[in-house]
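Worked Example 4.2. Consider the chain below.
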Amino acid sequence: MRLIRRRSQRRKLFLLMSLALLFGLLWAIKSQSAPNKLLYGAQQTPGESATPAVPSDTAPLVIVLDAGHGGHDPGADGASGKYEKNFTLALTEKVYQLLLKEPEFKPYMTRTDDTFIELEDRAAIANSQQADAFLSIHGNTFTSDTSVSGTETYYYELGSAKLAQAMQQAIVKATGFRDRGIKQEDWKVLRYSEVPAALLEVGFLTNAREEAFLLGEKGQNQIAQAIVDGLKNYFQSK
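Applying the procedure from the previous section yields the following structure tokens:
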């Protein structure tokens, strides 16, 4: 009787061991056929890209555009009697709109309407934005001789000379105006700037021929595009 019981217990033990071995073998086969998540990454959901998007390490270039004058400061009186402040705002808005279409740029304007802003405050806006370039846009005047013409660009810090040169070359090329060169001056809006800055005297509003071009839609579109091209040339050369 005891012998029969022992044989029965042995059969049960053998059966349990066999089942355990079988389950172990099945688990090993399943593990080998499944992908290794540590090696290949988490399983992706349907429609999900296998390669994650790589964020760009290049931030847009911040450009601060300053429409000269404004409010109670009309700027120059042109040959036609129109004010410089209106010309600068119209042109600056065109430059701003063009820059919005360029992914590499992020533009700002110091004023968007007929508002007066102190010169140091204009520079402070560029400083607060940590701008890559600050452009103050103007129309020139010389009432003593209305035949005086041409484009000239100003800078203060030597580090801004290349920006001034790039803008000067682009505008002269687009307008065909006389090249009066770049000049270093202690203008307040430039002196208070802590970023590369240039003041653009695009042309002489007191010169009737140049004023007609500066105030015209076609002329402003050409100048606005030239300013954008000048910025591209400047950053490509750095």
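The first helix runs from residue 2 to 33. The radius of gyration is 35 Å. Compare this with Example 4.1 before moving on.
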